[in-house]
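tool_log.txt
---
The assistant was asked to compare two proteins side by side. It first ran the structure predictor on the initial sequence, then on the second. Raw inputs and outputs are pasted verbatim so the downstream comparison step can read them without reformatting.
(1)
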Amino acid sequence: MDLARQQAIHFFGKGRNERIVPMWSQTITELKRWLLELPHSPTAALIPNRHGAAITRFGVKQRLDCAVKKARQACPSLKNRHISPHSIRHTTAMHLLQSGVDMTVIALWLGHAKLETTHQYMQADIEMKREALAKLPSLPTAF
């Protein structure tokens, strides 16, 4: 990882597909600070578990559950919300879509091999718009 030349991280996701994710400059700063605390070894895990090995998907879920439990104390609206790594991924995709980011860019970001896989977000966005429209008062019928 060369954080001086690029502000992105490369990793392998499901199906061993390589993902390249851009990062904010603040994230790069924090990551550089974190790297100073890690053992200087080319095989050291970037995010280690308590035994020093790379954190697993299960470990990520456990850490997220701890963070959500703490957040619920300060934000009661989270009480009945299901929050998982997948829901964060889905929410990020929806925010990108609602911000006008092209579907092909979102597909690349998510590591989808086919654009059709990303199409579910477009369908969800249309449904959200329908729900918002239904909440508006009806227009008068006479002109």
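(2)
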Amino acid sequence: MKPDIHPVYQTATVHCACGNSWQTRSTSKDIHTDICSSCHPFFTGRQKLVDTAGRVERFRQKWGNPAEPAAATTEE
């Protein structure tokens, strides 16, 4: 292995947007993240819908709840 080519592996602090933080090891000293296991809907069981610039609402207005699909017509 060549000497002096590997990055420094050090203790890093991870900070989540929810306020949670923990220690891990990384080449970066501080890591900032938007979501973690204490605020992610999969782990918490809470539904959290992130609507960026009203895209979800515009989609619902455009497509709405489609009417019930037409029943299969049988020709007699």
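---
observation on (2): The first helix runs from residue 41 to 44. The two ends are 80 Å apart (CA to CA).
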